[in-house]
Every structure is written in C-alpha cells, then in structure tokens.
From TrEMBL:
This is Diguanylate cyclase/phosphodiesterase. Residues 30-283 form the EAL domain. The lineage of its organism: Bacteria, Pseudomonadati, Pseudomonadota, Betaproteobacteria, Burkholderiales.
Amino acid sequence: ADAAMRAAKRAGGRQYAFFEPHMSTNAHEQLSLQTELRQALERGELVLHYQPKIDCRRRELAGVEALVRWNHPVRGTLGPSTFIPVAERFGLIGQLGQWVIEEACRQMKDWARVGMPMRVAINLSAQQLHEADLVERIDAALRRHGVAASQLLCEITETVTMEDVNTTQEVFGRLARIGVFIAIDDFGTGYSSLSYLRRLPARQLKIDRSFISDLETSADARAVVDAVVRLAHALGLRVVAEGVETAGQRDILVGMNCDELQGYFFARPMPADQLVAWSRRRPSLARV
Ligand code: C2E
Ligand code: MG
Ligand code: MG
Ligand code: MG
C-alpha cells in the first residue's frame, strides 16, 4: 500500500509539474532544484556524511553508513529527502548514485591508507536497481580504488525490494556474487514474507526507526522488534536497529540480542575527517 501510494504520488506529481499551466511554488521549486542539482553534481557540491554503526557484542565500530548531503551555496546543507526525489524524478539519480559509489570507494581507500579500514554502507534507490550495469560499475569502482568488495554494503529499503521481486533477486544475486554485502533497510514497513526473505542473499536487516522510537512506550513495538530479531537470526541475518536515540532503547535492544545499533544516541552522521577523531575517542562505545 505504501509503495503504491508513493508511486501514485510520483505519477501525480510528474503530471502536475509538466502539464499544469499554473505551477505551484513546489513544482517551480522542484524544477529549479533540478537545474541546480545538475550544476551541483558538476561543481562537486555533494558530500557524504558517515554515521557509525556499533557492534553490540564487540563494543566497537562495526562500520558506517554513507548519507549524502548537498552543500548548497545559498540554502546551506540540504538533506537527501529534499533532493533525492528530485534526482529520481528528473533522471539525475544515475549520475548521483554513481558519484556516491565512487566517493564511498575513494573514502574507503583513504581510511585504509591511514590504518582505519572501514565497512561502508551506501544506499541504493529503486531506479538504481534497474540500471543494467549497476553491478559492473560497483565492481569497477571497487577495483579502481583497490577496495575489497566485502567492505562494501548496499542498503536497499524493504519496500523497494518488493516493488519488483524479479529484478531484486537478480541484482541481489549479482551483488552477492561479486562479494558485496546487502542490507534490507527500513525493515518492518513493507510486510515482506518469510519465504521471500529467505530467497534473498541479504546479510543484514535494518529495523525501521519507527519501531525503535516506540520501544520504551509500546509493548507492541517491543514484540515486533523481538520477533524480527529472532526471525532474522533464524535466517542467518544480522540485525541492525536504526534511529537509536536513548539509553533506554539501547538497553532494550541489547537485551533482545540485536547485533548493531545506529542512531543519534551514539553519533550523528558526520564528515569523514570527524569520524577518525570520533572513533579514536569512542566516547559512547564503552557504555554499549
Ligand atoms: P536511511 O537509509 O534509512 O538512513 C537513515 C536516516 O535516519 C538518515 O537520514 C539519518 O541521518 C537518520 N537518522 C540516523 N539516526 C537517527 C536518529 O537517531 N534519529 C533520527 N530521527 N534520525 C536518525 P538522512 O541522512 O536524512 O537520509 C534519509 C534517507 O535518504 C535515507 O534513509 C536514505 O533512504 C536516503 N539516502 C541517503 N543517502 C542516500 C544516497 O546516497 N543515495 C540514495 N539513493 N538515497 C540516500
Ligand atoms: Mg540506509
Ligand atoms: Mg533506514
Ligand atoms: Mg529510511
């Protein structure tokens, strides 16, 4: 239902932007953002921030998730929710996605060089899954920078994996064959079935933030998360909780045997150079 709604919204929005004579500010805004985003990609205004994922058992940094930001010359730093939809709608996501792949690999190489090898997760959008040469380009970027494929993780949301089951299975299979790890993002929002999950060569399930934020107040949320952790473990998957903001949530998740935690409680997404300093201090890790 969620995916259908988003598809309807996309289709409706597209029509509106092109055929409505009196465009709303929002449609104008999107068109101007589109022009600016093209320039931004050429001028190098995009940047990746990295958010730590903490390994509960080992009490150390398990890796980071790369989250794209736009250092806009006038509007300041923009988050992906303002421009990823624009990129998807105006055919720029391929170029943006390629930049993310390239930049993440370059950064991984950099970290390895300073003695801090790092697992990095990148996010892939629905349209990227449909690019025929996606896996080849990821493979090429890894080779170009001399980074092991097993250091890279691709996060794809559960709803996207369900939009086109055949494509998902094929692309996941090819990613797995070159050695890249796969995580199913925002899990719990898409109602995928157990048998479907079993057929996907994923390594991680990332439980959606909405369940985590309700952990302390809702017995239902606790029951869902507990069940998801057990299900994932039964399928041989690691479980990551995203959006952990409080010590209470951390304690509940550790108690449920969750494998990795990610959220503002530990660290916000930060520029690459700050991550080195952060991981040297490791302030909150001792308390995991
Ligand atoms: P996501 O992959 O589920 O990423 C998690 C989002 O939650 C990030 O938002 C992160 O900053 C935020 N977050 C992390 N911890 C907390 C917390 O404790 N509390 C709260 N309230 N939020 C937290 P962000 O960076 O705005 O990214 C939003 C979405 O944009 C991502 O969701 C992902 O789907 C998409 N995205 C980000 N970077 C890329 C990219 O390079 N390519 C593509 N295709 N999509 C991207
Ligand atoms: Mg993600
Ligand atoms: Mg997520
Ligand atoms: Mg999300």
